[in-house]
Amino acid sequence: MYDVDRYLKSLDDGRVVYYKGMSVRNVADHPQLGTAVKHASLIYKWQHDEKYRDMLVYQDPEYGEISSFYKIPRKTEDLLDRFNLIYKTTRMGRGTFNIIQAIGSDAIFALLITAKEIDSRLGTTYFNRIEKFYRYVAENDLALAVAQTDMKGDRSLRPSEQSDPDMYVHIVKRSNDGIVVRGAKAHTTQGPVANEIIVIPTRAMTKDDADYAVAFAVPANAKGLKMISKPEKAVESANDDPWFIMGRENVETESITIFDDVFVPWDRVFLAGEWQYAGLLAVMFPTFHRFTAIAYRTGMADLLVGLGKLLAEFNGVDDKSHIRRDVVEIIKYKELLRSTGYLAAYESKADPATGIQIPDKVITNVGKLVANENYMDVIKHLVDVAGGLAATLPSSKDFENPDEMKYLSKYMMGKKGTDAVTRSRIISLTKEIISSFGALFSTAMIHAEGSIEASILELYRSYIYDGSKDLALYASGLKEKLDR
Amino acid sequence: MYDVDRYLKSLDDGRVVYYKGMSVRNVADHPQLGTAVKHASLIYKWQHDEKYRDMLVYQDPEYGEISSFYKIPRKTEDLLDRFNLIYKTTRMGRGTFNIIQAIGSDAIFALLITAKEIDSRLGTTYFNRIEKFYRYVAENDLALAVAQTDMKGDRSLRPSEQSDPDMYVHIVKRSNDGIVVRGAKAHTTQGPVANEIIVIPTRAMTKDDADYAVAFAVPANAKGLKMISKPEKAVESANDDPWFIMGRENVETESITIFDDVFVPWDRVFLAGEWQYAGLLAVMFPTFHRFTAIAYRTGMADLLVGLGKLLAEFNGVDDKSHIRRDVVEIIKYKELLRSTGYLAAYESKADPATGIQIPDKVITNVGKLVANENYMDVIKHLVDVAGGLAATLPSSKDFENPDEMKYLSKYMMGKKGTDAVTRSRIISLTKEIISSFGALFSTAMIHAEGSIEASILELYRSYIYDGSKDLALYASGLKEKLDR
Amino acid sequence: MYDVDRYLKSLDDGRVVYYKGMSVRNVADHPQLGTAVKHASLIYKWQHDEKYRDMLVYQDPEYGEISSFYKIPRKTEDLLDRFNLIYKTTRMGRGTFNIIQAIGSDAIFALLITAKEIDSRLGTTYFNRIEKFYRYVAENDLALAVAQTDMKGDRSLRPSEQSDPDMYVHIVKRSNDGIVVRGAKAHTTQGPVANEIIVIPTRAMTKDDADYAVAFAVPANAKGLKMISKPEKAVESANDDPWFIMGRENVETESITIFDDVFVPWDRVFLAGEWQYAGLLAVMFPTFHRFTAIAYRTGMADLLVGLGKLLAEFNGVDDKSHIRRDVVEIIKYKELLRSTGYLAAYESKADPATGIQIPDKVITNVGKLVANENYMDVIKHLVDVAGGLAATLPSSKDFENPDEMKYLSKYMMGKKGTDAVTRSRIISLTKEIISSFGALFSTAMIHAEGSIEASILELYRSYIYDGSKDLALYASGLKEKLDR
Amino acid sequence: MYDVDRYLKSLDDGRVVYYKGMSVRNVADHPQLGTAVKHASLIYKWQHDEKYRDMLVYQDPEYGEISSFYKIPRKTEDLLDRFNLIYKTTRMGRGTFNIIQAIGSDAIFALLITAKEIDSRLGTTYFNRIEKFYRYVAENDLALAVAQTDMKGDRSLRPSEQSDPDMYVHIVKRSNDGIVVRGAKAHTTQGPVANEIIVIPTRAMTKDDADYAVAFAVPANAKGLKMISKPEKAVESANDDPWFIMGRENVETESITIFDDVFVPWDRVFLAGEWQYAGLLAVMFPTFHRFTAIAYRTGMADLLVGLGKLLAEFNGVDDKSHIRRDVVEIIKYKELLRSTGYLAAYESKADPATGIQIPDKVITNVGKLVANENYMDVIKHLVDVAGGLAATLPSSKDFENPDEMKYLSKYMMGKKGTDAVTRSRIISLTKEIISSFGALFSTAMIHAEGSIEASILELYRSYIYDGSKDLALYASGLKEKLDR
Predict the structure, then answer these.
(1) Which residues of B touch C167 (CB under 8 A)?
(2) 3-state secondary structure (DSSP) of residue B263
(3) Residues of D with CB under 8 A from a CB of B
(4) DSSP A62-125
(5) B395:C435 CB<8 A
(6) Among A51, B264, B346, B396, which residue carries the largest CB count within 10 Å?
């Protein structure tokens, strides 16, 4: 298995990454991207920490000691353990998800299931390829990113209808050795700090879109692969602010991931033109990944619960009816996420062909929808408790100047017995969540792992209405008895 | 065990019940209250139906064959079974809960736990009394009602502060044989058609309120006990409308239950002045009963899901984005209730003293709150799908007049291939839900088993914030490491 | 002008009306429809009441003394007066709108504007016809209904695409004398008690739908016209309940209005095939009618504000934070409606061709949307204040039985100093609003005058984005200066 | 009147301002606070710009040429003009309010009314003092800040109950020449760049709090006055980003404003111990200032409407039902604010004693509440339209590197015919609104000009329920006729 050092070294591989218009020589040393590396490396650190080792490391009968993230779920308990692994590591990351092995394993589980299905129908050999890739990843304890969302261009058009055919990643050449792919993917979380990039289609495809039905994996330093990182405001902001630990320690990066005619050898190709199965993959991956999302969002929500309660206490408004309501709305958010996450595990089923345990799709999407739709409202409640200082709090530097500190220690005190600096730091974190982290959290909570509309569509389509309709017909007197 | 006949006969016991200003001689024969009896009797009918027997009847090692409602939960599976028993019988009751053994068992479980606690602290013998009562109820398969909510008078005053001391039920006399109680309780569901009425306090009490800290059980025909039933619009409306099955078959009644100096012998008294424990009982009963509520509300929501989907299909709007959203909001409501109900069972814990399995209080209250706060919104979405005909639909009688039917069969058709009468009956049920059943459903969904504010208060108080605060302090940089 | 007697007599004209499967000989004498007549006749009563005469009667320079409802608005003040006329008569109708001259005048205003436009483009003579009709209506102070919403059949198909061509009202024959129309319209409010029925298209039409582009007026007793009234639960319920005044006095009826080959002479035809203008009419009428809707909904909301506050006071919860919030949500609803209604008047513009003052379309739709989307939430807040008794309140008959009244006068008391009967009657009205009136109010508030989606579509299309986009481009730095 | 130069020079007056722990010599030259100065100075620039002069400058019969902000409203039209002045200057400030004369005039109007009232009751001479101050301000065209919100300490305690008596600003000494005040105020917008600071109480006071009932004005360089500015993230962020114009041009600052025994001569003291009138002032100022707030928030909302629509168009999702809904929610927000703002002007009334026109308090608070409660939801809708790029958009610097631009110009294109850079800049502004501006906007929109709970309380208390209750009693049958 990796340790932190081996992971750091692995990143110095000539990959092409840009940050704010500059080419980045080594992401691990970079002043901003270095934070994304540091956050990812926590997984490797914890693997070697006695306190967390049991949770982070799994003794696989076949592969030996591997990361718990790479343990293939085969029963309800495995999914519950996976939920808690993600929930707890999110808490250990101060509320920031650690995606570096979670998303890759989500994709691998989905690819294993899909590959088995395609092979059984079409006589292909995808399962062996993805299994081999899985073995390589698990045994080497690699860091993975998944690139799914295409740039999309005009969203009202299908891939093959776009004026620029590259708006979705597609195969531009096939040869005996492999395929050549072109296009770009948006929002690749931790792409610039991963070892391997897994690519899967973003949607179901039609026959005309066959070249867009492509899934594969490439190393982050593959020729022709270029990643443009987003600017890391939270990190930049933290460098200036000793109070803002999260910004220095717990930020992930995201990139636009460009495939400028990247060659992929056949044993790394997991779908290549079988357009009928793009949809299956585009549903199976989100099922695993939205389950993951509910887990990390529960962890993130736990931070908001704690912040809300502390703010209420420090402000001396702990007993106000409207403040109770604010805090309870945050609790409700967290506990509804947890309820749906757990139930998705309890009602999971094993895929008959591979034995991989799949979280319940309906409950997973319900939880996902709750997470998306209510995050901004939760923040509204948090800000309501925090008060105006969430915007107007002085800088931590002001607390270092004795001339100012004379006043700040006096006037920043809240409820009797509280301490001005403690209160200010709690308010400060609230402020960062809605400013430095604002774009990331708001947008991610609304769009990551699929938009609100996507979850509505998925739920509407996949819900089994038979029992409900049976009841409605029975209650309407249109059926004599209940059949289901 | 009872069968339907024995149950019906048991009700002809001289009890004092009023309906619309008239004294009711026998509730079973009464044109409106008879429906409440018929609905309750379904439990006894199903107990003897081969199809449902396994679900409805439990072979208790000690008490022999008893109703599954009276099975004491001793592990997670028991609570899951209980959830499904309530969910399924609600569906079998066309979406209407069947409370007649559910609420009584909720109260008995709570009393057993509380009694054991009081006995262990104060050396009283309440546990034996309630256990004896339980044996009597279970062995005889009785129908029970629970009277908890006092009339309250001025809600800003405590029981002992009211200008009229009887606004909360209280002990007015104690003797060697027992106690005499006075006061009135509101909203006693199925009181007029129950065999026994269990009475418990509605809130925590102070020392000054000691006489109000009283719990007991009396037969429905106890001397001095008088019940004023609410008018049953849904039933009256159904008599006139062959389409409206629910109104004829599946309605429960509610009463104001008056204790005009009712004598209760000591072996039926389960709390009598130990004011410190009124609060425990007032929390323990809702924990069981809100769990029950989540189960029946899931069943009721299932009806709304089915109705919504059928309406969408019959109206030919199945593929409209805003209609999908409407239906998904109803699905979300149902599945969130189910998620919290199930998780409350999965995270239940056995009471150490009695071994009774208690649903998780936090999750139970989260589910309860979701049920309360969102019901009206769910109805908004249902009405949005139904369209204006939910108000302006002709009467079923119009469909019997051939002169009108000529037009109605033509013009009430929706999507091609649908049938005018089928569509109309589905709309008709929607209409009844928001009119004949309107006051009952709206109010019950918002207030039954405790108000929104009550759940907020309970959640705010009982949530364990330690882990969340620990995380917030850690993320704020105020703690070096996460302790929890 | 009419008085009550002349209006009542005018209804005994052989019109074909069905109620619950029975043919109705004279609507004025009918036990249920009679209430709709009584409510409508209030307009005529108030016209002759010194107290209200100034508000209800207008001295027109051309037509002499006419109903204020028929006064053509020609300036902002006229629309403000119209708003208040509707608001106040709604209050005088105990919160129930009095549509009988309001909707007809809305349609006439729209028809005058549209006719002028068509005439100017196509050389037709519609304006004279509708003006002549208007004179007839105004001078005779007639009662009008408007039938707009077609039965629609499969809502995903246009009129000419339906499997049954009659799903939308259309011209089946043209002759020298006039046209023959066939089809049916849903939800015709007060159709069975009106003198004339105005018919207008429900949507924009394409060339293929030309025969569906038809507008006209016919007397309620026209040959071939048949009306099927909805069952009047509120009225039936009131007959049994002395407390429920609204149900006996203030209910309107709605019908399915069937045109079974009804002949319309040319001078009553206001659109006949000019499909390009169906859309104009289908937008212009809602603009006037939604303005009307905002006014009556403000009146209805005023009732809910009063109820909410009284309930809070009688229950002794007037000072609770969550109750304040409940009441304020109702106030907010009312005052937002009033704000948009007034602003739609203040920002109205005169149609250049006719001089008729048109309420601002955007603000009108914003107000309409607020009214639709939030009604159920307002009811939730009302029920939260009312408490469980909104469902379980005894019947008024129970208050007449001395045996029961002994207890009810004692236990139904709320806050000290309040009276049990007064409190009960206030709760009783709340109950009727969510039960007898439930289907009507919920559905009407969500669907009447156009669905939520219809208002969203209209707003999205008709909003003038130029200034807003200019600002966004300027703020983005994409424009040097603000142009608008 | 001032021009930009005179204003800039006026700020170099030795005032004590801290920024991030450093003392600021001259705010106008300061890298971050300079932006707040530049934004404020726009008022002076526009006063001298032919295009805006008519709007910005008013010819007062008594004071000659003064700023339109300082024009005392004496009729409805004046308030409508004032609304539009604030709305338009907010748009001219790219959506950022320009508070520098608006808030000061709000305070002066409130002080004039309150002073007249106190004088008439107590024989004091406050009116002359505040009028003289007003003349000085208006004639010199000064820049003003208002400090109202005290630091508050433990919010559950009154000013005189705090463990530290200085938690609310109060009088510590009175002499023949004036008073000495001590304490601190939070959130003083533009305090560090104003000429004068007006101080008013934050709440009603009791007799025990008499020393806290104090209002006055001091120059920004008054001895003992110290201001700690909040860190300006938006400005810092903009320095690094050529695309982010708003951050460089249109940001205001806020300070904690400390009164360390500041002397105020009597002619600058407007309230000094008359505790009975603190409440009047604490209500009158918000009435004016919330009216101002509705105006600027309408301007800010206009930016969001434009952004939303442009994003929808550039992303090619302009015709999606859920996107229409998103945009319409933003439109609704803006138009509801405008409706309440305008109606508050239309229903304004002149104060009998001073003739100053006061916006309607109820409608003002309704508008305020809508603005507070719905802002986060509006942002949710904006982000839903924007898509994930609102978080993951590359930096403007990436668009300057030709190696990256090759890809970005290709892949950042949206709908056919749109341009990658234009689209990216629009997304970029969206991102800044939820990140650099995130804390400011979220918090201000929820808390500025009073919290949600404050508006609820004010509305609940001040609403005139008489008409509504009259209607509810009439509709309940408890009154024979409507009295109001």
Answers:
(1) 411, 413
(2) strand
(3) 320-322, 325
(4) TTEEEEGGGPPP-SHHHHHHHHHHHHHHHHHTTT----TTHHHHHHHHHHHHHHHHHHHHH---
(5) no
(6) B264
Instruction: Please report residues of B whose CB lies closer than 8 A to that of C240.
Output: 236
d(CA A150, CA A213): 12
Would you say D186 and D153 are in contact if contact means Cβ atoms under 8 Å apart?
no
CA distance D72 to chain B (A): 46
Q: Which residues lie below 8 Å from residue B195, measured CB to CB, with a gap of 6+?
A: B10, B11, B140, B142, B143, B144, B219, B220
SS3 content of chain B, % helix, strand, coil (to 5): 55, 15, 30
Residue of D nearest to A446 (CA): D384
Q: What is the DSSP letter of C62?
A: T
Q: Beta strands of D319-369 (E only): which ranges? A: 349-350, 357-358
Q: How far is Cα C107 from Cα C147, in angstroms, rounded to an integer? A: 10
Q: Which of D22, D383, D453 is facing A442, going by the closest CB pair?
A: D383
**Rounded Cα distance, B99 and B443, in Å:** 17
Residue (of C357, C338, C197) closest to C288 by Cα position: C357
Cα dihedral C296, C301, C307, C309 sign:
negative
Name which of B70, B475, B100, B66 is nearest B252 in CA terms: B100
* Residues of A in Cβ contact (< 8 Å) with C325: 322
- Closest-CA distance, B259 to chain A, in angstroms, reads 34
Q: State chain A's mean pLDDT as an integer.
A: 96
CA dist., res. C290 & res. C86, Å (int): 12
Task: Judge whether B54 and B323 are in contact, CB under 8 Å.
Answer: no
CA distance B317 to chain D (A): 14
Closest chain D residue by Cα to residue A17: D404
Q: Tokens standing for B348?
A: 């239940």
Per-residue pLDDT tens for A219-246?
999 999 999 999 999 999 898 899 999 9
Helices (H), C124-188: 126-140
Is the CB of D477 less than 8 angstroms away from the CB of C332? no
Cβ pair B164:C413 closer than 8 A: yes
Q: Rounded to whole angstroms, how far apart are CA atoms A330 and A309?
A: 10
Cα D228-D229-D231 angle, rounded to 5 deg = 130
Contact between A316 and D154 (Cβ < 8 Å)? yes
Side-chain half-sphere CA neighbours of A300 within 13 A: 24
For D6, residues 6+ apart whose C-beta sits below 8 A from its C-beta are D44
pLDDT band at D417 (very low <50, low <70, confident <90, very high): confident
CA distance A275 to A280: 10
Average of pLDDT values for B312-321? 94
For residues A215 and A201, give the distance between their C-alpha atoms in angstroms, rounded to a whole number.
6
Residue C402 to chain D, least CA–CA distance (Å): 21
pLDDT for residue B484 is more than 80: no
What is residue C316's predicted lDDT score, i.e. its pLDDT?
A: 93
Q: Nearest CA to C112 among C126, C124, C99, C101?
A: C126
Write out pLDDT tens, residues A171-219.
999 999 999 999 999 999 999 999 999 999 999 999 999 999 999 999 9
CA-to-CA distance for A111 and A106, rounded, in angstroms? 9
A387: alpha, beta or left, given left = phi > 0 and alpha = psi -120 to 50?
left
- End-to-end, the C-alpha distance of chain B in Å comes to 51
pLDDT tens sequence across B177-190: 999 999 999 999 99
Are the Cβ atoms of D322 and B320 closer than 8 angstroms?
Answer: no
Q: In the complex, which subunits touch B with 3 or more CB pairs below 8 angstroms?
A: A, C, D
Which tokens go with D214? 């104090």
Q: Closest approach of chain C CAs to the CA of B244, in angstroms? A: 14
In sequence order, which residues have a C-beta less than 8 Å from that of residue D461 and are 6 or more positions away?
Answer: none
Q: Does the pLDDT of residue D87 top 90, yes or no?
A: yes
- Residue B154 CA to residue C328 CA, distance in Å, equals 22
